[in-house]
Amino acid sequence: MDKLHAMRVFARVVEVNSFTKAADTLGLPRASVTTTIQNLEAALGVRLLQRTTRKLSLTLDGAAYLEGATRILSDVEEVEASFTSARKTPRGRLRVDMPGSLGRLVIIPAIHEFHARYPDIEIMIGMSDRPIDLIQEGVDCVLRVGDLQDSSLIARRVGAFRPVTVASPAYFARHGTPKTIEDLERHIAVNYFTRTGKLMEFSFERDGVVQEVKMAGNVAVNDADAYVTCALEGLGLGQTARFMVLPHLRSGALVEVLGEWRPALMPLSALYPHNRHLSPKVRAFVDWVAELFEGCPLMQGEDIPGYDCGAEAKPKTVPVAVDSVAMDQDSACLCVM
Known about the structure:
Elements: H1 3-16, H2 19-26, H3 30-44, E1 49-51, E2 56-58, H4 60-87, E3 92-98, H5 100-117, E4 121-127, H6 134-137, E5 141-145, E6 154-161, E7 163-167, H7 169-175, E8 188-192, E9 202-206, E10 209-213, E11 216-221, H8 224-232, E12 238-241, H9 242-251, E13 255-256, E14 266-272, H10 280-294, E15 320-322, E16 325-327
Parallel strand pairs: 3-4, 3-5, 8-11
Antiparallel strand pairs: 1-2, 5-14, 6-14, 7-12, 7-13, 9-10, 15-16
Helix pairs in contact: 1-2, 1-3, 1-4, 2-3
């Protein structure tokens, strides 16, 4: 029996508290995971897990074995990582998750550069705004916007942006253009709600003073692309990242207002579990994302009013396919393409 393999399988079963989830994240048949644990228990002569139809729990022997196995696996991973780093060839499957708009408009249009640099990494990109349990779902790294909640993860800030306040010309024709924060009392917004149903307030900052405004509205959504579409349809004012609405600002389909009251800075962070800290493939991806964002002032929080990131960008003519839909160069921030 391969003892290291058995330790890895056992540790993953405990991490995700499920034979099925462990099999999925390890890329193994469930029967293989079950057999591995049974053979390990037989070899050790003790029961490591108490199994019921509803849950798994460690026995006292299982807890002691897990402590030792975790230490051994960590040492092995550190040694392997040092040699991998020395060869500068990160490899293997990397599973990441990020907001859909960030992935579709910024990361995926440049992903060919990541593959050119790291051809031995197979990357799986999930796109969602929902909270992810990285251990349970077998995700190596997530990109998230805003203040961080989970202190159990390692976080590295890789960028930032300031949202812009926008609406369509049709909306302004019906409701007028707000000139001050006080004018917002007479306006409606497209609201964004969190997974708990809480509506996000508009945020403004001027001379170091942050002011939050609760906006009335007829429509609320929980998807960034749908949010932009609602603003384009004239359903209200919106606050969103400039990189998401650049083509619409260029075309005049959306117009920025309240430029003197710039929305508060939104940090962009990469988060990953402690047990992924030494992984060369995770480090490679996070370093690449940080480098990618450094190429655009908008992704570093340097949101200069009226700045057009595409003005000095080199023309790109190669479209990128996303879910079989081609995206051309006018669909995203050209600084990072």
